[in-house]
Structure formats: C-alpha cells, structure tokens
Amino acid sequence: MYFLRQIILDTKVEPKTISKFPENIICSQAPEQSPGTEEDGVLWITDQGQRAQELLRFDCPVLAWLHEHNRDQDFSGVRYACENLEELDWDYMEKVYRRYMGIPWDILTTDRCLVRETSAEDLDALYEIYAEPSVTQYTEGLYPEYAQEEAYLQDYTENMYYFYNYGVWTICDKITGQVIGRAGFSNREGYEDPELGFVIGVPWQRQGYATEVCKALLEYGKEELGFEQVQMLVMPENEVSLHLAEELGFVFEEMIVWDDVKYCRLFLANRNG
Question: pTM for the full model?
Fold first, then answer.
C-alpha cells in the first residue's frame, strides 16, 4: 500500500538541465505553489535551503536535492537528501514520506507474513502475546504499565528505526493483518555484530513462521543493510531456538554470560555467492 501520491520538484534549475527524472514518477515543477495548501500524499523535493526551511515550518515532508550550486545553503532539519535525481525510485520516496508522517515502514513480505515497523496500534496484540508465560521464558517481556511501553516505543522508534533504519519489527499475517509476533535485529551493548531475535505468539508456533520470517530477515540484512555477520544469543536450555539457529546456518562460537545469564553465542557469516 502506497501513501505517497505526488512529488513536487521545487527548483529554479531549468527542466532541460535535468537529464532524466525516474520513469513512472509524475513530477511538478511548482516553485510558486504555497506549502500547506495541497492534500496529503505529497513529498517536496527542493534544492533551495530557504525553501526547505519554509516547507518544514508547514510540516511538509521534504527531500533535499544537493548539487554543486547549493552546497553553501542551509538544509538543517531536512532528514533526507539526494545528489542524483535519477537514482530515486518510488519505494525510497515512499519511505521518506512515511518517516515524516510517522507511518510505519513495510520492511518485507514472505509467503504468509508482512514484516513492518511496530506502531502503538500493535501494543494490545503484543501484550496478549507476551502474557503467555512460555513466551517470556527465554526473552524479555514488555513493561508492566501500558504507558511505559508506549513511551519506550516512541523512544525506540526515534533512536532505532529513525537512526539505524532497522530494529525489532512486528510480524503480521499478510492476509488478515493479525499481529502474530516480532522479529528483527538489535544492538547488544558490548557487541559489534547485529543480533537476530524473534518472538512468535503461542497460537502460531510450530507452523514454520519463525523459520520463514528469519530466513527473509537474514537476506534483507545482507542485501539491504549490508550486514557481514549476524549473531544470535540463545539460552542453552532453549532447544527450539537452537534448532532454528542451526537450520538457518548459524554456527556455535562460545558460551558467554551477559547480565548474569548464560547464553550460547552463534554466528552466521554472509558470504557472497
């Protein structure tokens, strides 16, 4: 599903000097158009610092176009920038638009699932999943107070999703939209390698969802995020997760103790070819 409907290229550069804008993108050169008057679904691309600041004051989603003639201009506050318009595609600009509008990114789909960023609307379903004692036997649970978890999610969104463009995401049934678990990559203090983790709700366990999603996530981590190596930390008594790690190609490296808990540390190296 796309939320972005229109791109407005706001520039004083003559159209003929722009070699080629991506096909399938309808772009309007409209430097006289006033921000805040258009409908939702609009992303502005501008190469003028002053114009970018004006657009931001109107809470308009902005992508800065940087070139040799505007390097001295002020684009502070603009979250995203590009140097070559030809390299832009609709999916990337959809992500830029969603980030400004606070709409969760869709990360990937599998045969049965959609993996997307977690939103506050997911919390009720997640509390139901984490209420099962077996779910929190080997993983950390949610905050006891809903407001605490909501505040944590807001902070997590800004410090993980916005900064790293990855994190632990929500798994949904692709057809019904039902939240069935979480999976993704985290950064554990004291370790450089990203860590794969997952939680599947009890009603969906032993149906291959964890394998299906984790395989797709590992491919995403390699191809889209450039991860050269991924780790898993699994408690020795968690035989189900150890079996899954082996199925995914992880290899045991060592036993460690982190935060007074013993873990098997496993690695998966992403090799080309």
Answer: 0.84
